[in-house]
Each structure stands twice: as structure tokens, then as C-alpha cells.
Design a protein that fits this description.
Blueprint (H helix, E strand, L loop, with lengths): L1 H6 L1 E11 L15 E10 L9 E4 L5 H8 L3 E3 L16 H6 L6 E7 L5 E12 L2 E3 L3 H20 L6 H7 L1 H26 L4 E6 L4 E4 L1 H7 L3 H4 L14 H12 L4 E8 L5 E12 L5 E10 L1 H85 L6 H13 L2 H33 L8 E3 L1 H11 L8 E6 L5 E3 L1 H21 L8 E9 L2 E5 L1
Helix pairs in contact: 4-6, 10-12, 12-13, 13-14
């Protein structure tokens, strides 16, 4: 009754081992041909039964026989669904005779002080809220302790052959022990309740890594039930994305008695991958040997995804910031260039009038120099006529002066100087006209007719300094005049060429490696410009 109360069982039976010949209480000594299992106590809450004492052969094909022979508890989730790999089978004769339905079974061997099996306690159908559930490791531990107490009682009173009296005498002792176990059970239930309702997943394995327990959070998260995982290796969760060295280091750490902490990339039952922040710690027995491993896991899949997304956004922001900085530099440069262009146009406008005076005066000076040169030549003819007269000394002084001051060289160089000055002034005038044309200072506002090749050359002239290390290849065709806003066209062409220069410099080409090709042509009644 106490075992049923502790484990919430619906039924219980008690068997003891007796000698086949004498019928005296005995123990299992690795030989079962001269031993029998004697059924002595049975109780069932669902049906009212009165069973007579009977004996059974000890056979490994029966559940209680297997427990006696192996000396280990046998826990069965469904008596009718025992795997074919197990050697034992469930005897259905009681169920067929009574209509009772046996499902979960827990069989515990009773051992004496020499660890010899002297009997078996078998619990049937653990219930919770009128539903049959499986016995767990806690039930197994409690019954193992109770079986030990019962074994002590039986062992101390085997000679009396009066089990009922002995049990009555030891009732208070057993009851006190059960009360202790009950209080301990309450504490354990509190702990188990906390574990079961924990927001983190929990897995307990034996020293060889076989799964002994998982909490409901782990079942919910991975999709596996405890029945699917019991006594299996955690390798069932491996994703294949973490190499053998990773798991070798993990096992080496915990087998040395240390706690391992890290992130594991695992796979759920449905094939979905997940990240878990895991902490695996060993649990030792009284002799200092590792008994269990406890693995506490926290799902960090969403956190990892958000971190990866955040990193990507940071990368995008950094790229956008760099692009913004480059665009800002280019914009500032373009604004400076526009300001310089306006300044240059203003200077060109102011220089245009005095430059016209200089050119006009230089042309007049050229005419004057020609007349003076003719006059000097006539003076020389006169000097030649007077060289043999009374004025010979003056003629000699004139020749000496000409030679000393290189008058012949001056007369020849005056023409070159005037020609070079005219060429320079023409170049300055051309530059001024280009600057004026570029800024539309001399153009009316709005559209007007002009040749776009002129605008291209104007822009190239404005960017001449930036084009020093870049080859410019021009393919300018024969174009008709177009009607457009020249100032806006200049800005478009200027920006296209500037972008080309900027692209070349961003590529970090070696000197003279960059090349810009500019084409213009007339096709289908349209003027085309390509940069």
C-alpha cells in the first residue's frame, strides 16, 4: 500500500524466492532450476481480487524472472508493446481472465546485504488524473529504497517463516522510513517541478553519455519525446556542421571532471537547425566517480539571427557612410569647381577689354616697328654715302654703336617677339572666350544655338589640371548646331567627365593607365555625346 501511495500505482504484487525442494525462503544464486518465485501479496485498486498463493518458475522470458536474473529494475512503458529485441514478454493471462488492462510496469528486485536477490516487487499502471502514465527514474529510486528495507526485514526474519508478523513488527520502522522518503519525495517533486517548468532545456545522461532524462522544455523545443531518446546518444542531435575536434574537446573536458561551456549547433527532429548556449557538468557519486552528466541548454537561435542581421546592417551602414563621405567630397569639389568657374568667368570678363587694348596696341606697335626698321635701313644707306666725307667720324661712331648694341639682331628679333606676343595673346583670348562660353556670361538666359563640340572642349580645358595623368581620346564628329541651354549642357558634360576621372582615381591605376574616351556624332536627327 505504501509503495502504491508513493508511486501512484494502481496495483502491486510481491514475490519472494523459495527453495523448490524445502519451500523455505531462499535467494537467487545464479542457478534457477532449484528455485521458485512465490507470490504472496497482491493489491489492485481497480478490481477486487483475491489471489491464492502460488509459485512460478524463474525464467528470463518473464518480466519478474528477467529482473531476478539480471538483478536490475525493469521499467516498461507499454506491456503490450515490448520491443522484439527484449528477451522477456508480458504474460497476458491475468488481463484475459479479469478484463484488466496492464500498461506501465515497474519491477524492482529486493536484495540482501550481500546483494543477493531474495524477491521482487512489481508495480502496475501509474496514474495521474485518471490517465495511465510511465514510471520515471524517481519512482525507480524510491522503490529501490523501499525494496531494500523490505529485503532487510525479510533477511532478518527468514528463519521465522512468518512474514506477516515480521512486517507488522517492522511496520513503524517502515512507516517512519516511508515518511522520510515521502518528505524527501516532496522536496524532489519541488525540484522536479522547477526543472520541468524551467525556461531552459535540461538533459541528463549516464557516464557513457546515454540519455537518462529530458525535461518537457527540451521535448517541446526539439520535437523528441523522452521515449524516443531514452538510452540513446546525444549524437542524434548533431547537425554535422561542427567537426570531430569540437566534440573531442567537449568530451575530454567533462570526462576530466570539468564543466564545458559553449555554443552548439544542433538539429531538431523535423530537421530544423538551432543554436544552443550549452553548459555540461559532471555529477559524482560518493566515491568520486562520475555518475551522470547534466546538460543545460538555452536556445539562442533568434539571438544569433538578430546578431547576424545587426552585423549586416552595420556593414551596410559603414558602406553607406563611406559612399556618403566620398559623395560629399565629390560634391564639395564640384561646388568648388563651379565657384572657380564663376570666378574665372568674372576675371575673363574683366580681362577681356584690357586684353583687347593690348592686342590692338601690339598690332599698332608692330606697324611702328616696321616703319622704324625701314627708317633705320634708310639711315644706313645715308651713312654709307657719307662714309668718305667729312662726316666719316660720325658714321664710324654709328657703326660702332650698332655693333655694340647688336642692332641687326634686334631688327630681326623684333618680328619674332611681336609674332610670339600675338600668339600668346591669341591663346589668352581663346582661354578667356572658353571661360566666358562655359559660364554663359555672354549668352542670353534660356536656349540658344551652339555646337556641342565647343562645350566638350571647354569642359576639357576647365579640367585640364585633373587630366594631367589621364589619357583623353577624342572622337568628335561633324555636328550641326543644337538649340539648348548651353550652361546646363556644360554642367552635364562636366559632370560626366568628372565622374570618369573620379572612377579612374578610385581604381588606383598607375600613372597614365587611366583613359577617357569622348565621342560625338550625328545620327537619326539627334546629336549624340558619349563619355
Amino acid at each position: 500500500a505504501y509503495s502504491m501511495e508513493l508511486t501512484l500505482s494502481d496495483a502491486v504484487t510481491l514475490y519472494i524466492i523459495v527453495d523448490k525442494d524445502s519451500g523455505n525462503y531462499s535467494y537467487y544464486d545464479k542457478k534457477f532450476d532449484n528455485k521458485l518465485l512465490k507470490f504472496i501479496i497482491a493489491k489492485n485498486n481497480s478490481i477486487d481480487i483475491k489471489l491464492q498463493s502460488a509459485t512460478l518458475e524463474i525464467s528470463e522470458s518473464s518480466i519478474i524472472g528477467a529482473s531476478v536474473i539480471d538483478g536490475k529494475p525493469v521499467r516498461i512503458e507499454d506491456a503490450y508493446g515490448i520491443p522484439a529485441t527484449e528477451c522477456y514478454r508480458f504474460n497476458q493471462s491475468f488481463d484475459k481472465a479479469t478484463g484488466y488492462r496492464t500498461k506501465s510496469v515497474l519491477t524492482i528486485p529486493m536484495k540482501d546485504h550481500e546483494e543477493k536477490v531474495i524477491g521482487v516487487i512489481q508495480l502496475i499502471n501509474k496514474k495521474a488524473n485518471d490517465h495511465i502514465i510511465s514510471f520515471n527514474s524517481l519512482d525507480e529510486s524510491l522503490m529501490y529504497s523501499l525494496a531494500g528495507l523490505a529485503a532487510v526485514v525479510l533477511e532478518n526474519n527468514l528463519l521465522n517463516n512468518n512474514l506477516k508478523i515480521l512486517l507488522e513488527k517492522e511496520r513503524n520502522l517502515v512507516k517512519e522510513e516511508i515518511n522520510k522518503r515521502t518528505r524527501a519525495d516532496e522536496e524532489i517533486h519541488k525540484l522536479l517541478s522547477a526543472v520541468e517548468h524551467s525556461p531552459v532545456s535540461l538533459v541528463i545522461t549516464d557516464a557513457k553519455g546515454r540519455i537518462e532524462y529530458v525535461n518537457s522544455k527540451f521535448e517541446e523545443f526539439t520535437g523528441y519525446t523522452y521515449a524516443e531518446l531514452a538510452h540513446k546518444s546525444p549524437r542524434i542531435f548533431q547537425s554535422g556542421q561542427q567537426g570531430a575536434e569540437f566534440y573531442e574537446h567537449l568530451w575530454k573536458t567533462i570526462e576530466q571532471g570539468n564543466t564545458w561551456k559553449g555554443e552548439i549547433y544542433n538539429k531538431k527532429k523535423n530537421g530544423e537547425f538551432y543554436w544552443a548556449n550549452s553548459s555540461i557538468a559532471p555529477v559524482f557519486d560518493s566515491n568520486g566517480n562520475i555518475r551522470y552528466f547534466i546538460n543545460v541548454q538555452e536556445d539562442i537561435t533568434e539571438r544569433k539571427r538578430l546578431m547576424a542581421e545587426l552585423d549586416q546592417k552595420n556593414d551596410n551602414l559603414e558602406k553607406a557612410l563611406r559612399q556618403l563621405q566620398l559623395s560629399q567630397v565629390q560634391l564639395i569639389h564640384n561646388e568648388k569647381l563651379a565657384g572657380v568657374g564663376q570666378l574665372a568667368a568674372g576675371v575673363a570678363h574683366e580681362m577681356n577689354t584690357p586684353l583687347g587694348f593690348v592686342i590692338s596696341n601690339l598690332n599698332t606697335l608692330d606697324q611702328y616697328c616696321g616703319k622704324l626698321k625701314d627708317l633705320i635701313l634708310q639711315y644706313r644707306e645715308l651713312a654709307d654715302h657719307l662714309s668718305n666725307s667729312d662726316y666719316s667720324d660720325y658714321v664710324h661712331k654709328l657703326h660702332a654703336y650698332e655693333q655694340h648694341n647688336q642692332i641687326d639682331y634686334i631688327l630681326d628679333d623684333i618680328t619674332n617677339i611681336v609674332e610670339e606676343s600675338n600668339g600668346g595673346l591669341s591663346r589668352v583670348s581663346e582661354i578667356i572666350n572658353v571661360l566666358r562660353s562655359f559660364s554663359s556670361i555672354d549668352h542670353f538666359e534660356g536656349r540658344q544655338l551652339f555646337n556641342i563640340n565647343t562645350n566638350i572642349n571647354s569642359c576639357l580645358l576647365m579640367l585640364q589640371k585633373e587630366l594631367e595623368e589621364i589619357t583623353v581620346h577624342k572622337e568628335l564628329g561633324d555636328l550641326p548646331a543644337i538649340c539648348a541651354d548651353g550652361k546646363e549642357i556644360n554642367q552635364v558634360i562636366l559632370h560626366l567627365i568628372k565622374n570618369a576621372i573620379y572612377a579612374i582615381k578610385c581604381k588606383s591605376y598607375d600613372k597614365n593607365e587611366g583613359r577617357i574616351i569622348i565621342r560625338s556624332y550625328f545620327k537619326d536627327d539627334h546629336v549624340w555625346v558619349e563619355v
